[in-house]
Amino acid sequence: MVSVPRILAVTGGLILAGILAGALAAGCGWVIAALLSGNWRLALDPKIWRFSALVGGFIGAVAAPLTSWLFLRHVPLGRLIFQTTIVTAVIGGVSFALNLNPFLLASVGFVGAAVRLALVTPARRAADRLPQADPPGKLGA
Q1: Considering the entire predicted model, what is its pTM?
Q2: Could you give the C-alpha distances from 14 to 8, 39, 52, 130, in angstroms and in order?
Q3: In which element (H, E) is residue 34 found?
Q4: Is 135 part of any domain?
Q5: CA distance 27 to 42
Q6: Has residue 132 been placed in a domain?
Q7: I need a surface site. Which of 36, 68, 72, 93 has the fewest CB within 10 A?
Q8: Which of 85, 86, 106 is nearest to 17 (CA)?
Q9: 139 pLDDT tier (thresholds 50, 70, 90)
Q10: pLDDT tens figures, 49-94
Q11: Structural domain containing residue 11
Q12: Cβ contacts of 64 within 8 Å, gap of 6 or more
C-alpha cells in the first residue's frame, strides 16, 4: 500500500541529501579544477566555495530525487549518493580545468554514474522482501 506521508518523507530526505551532495561535489570539483590549473590559492577562496555550493546544491536538490524515483529505486542510497557525487566532482573539476563546460559534463557524469548503478545493481525480488519462516520441523531454536 502506498503511504503518501512516507513518500513525502523519503522525497524530502532525497532533496536534503541531494543539496548536500551537490554542494560537496561542486566544491570539490572547484578544488580539483584549481589544483589542475596550478592556482591552488583560488581553491581556498570562500566566495567561490559559496557560489559553487549554491549552484551544486540547487542542481543536486533536483537531480537526486528525480533519478532516485525514476530508475534507481533498488539501489542502496549510500551507494547512490557516494558514487554519483564522486563522479560528478571529478568530471566537473577536470572539465572546468580543461575549459570545457563543467555544468554539461558534470551532469553527463552524474547520469552516467546513475545509469551504471542501475545496470549493475540487481533488483530485489519479491521473495527477498518477505520475512523468512522457520523450516518445517524446527521450532524457533
Answers
A1: 0.79
A2: 10, 34, 20, 25
A3: helix 4-37
A4: no
A5: 12
A6: no
A7: 36
A8: 85
A9: low
A10: 899 999 999 999 999 999 988 877 888 888 889 999 999 999 999 9
A11: 4-122
A12: 14, 15, 17, 18, 21, 22, 81
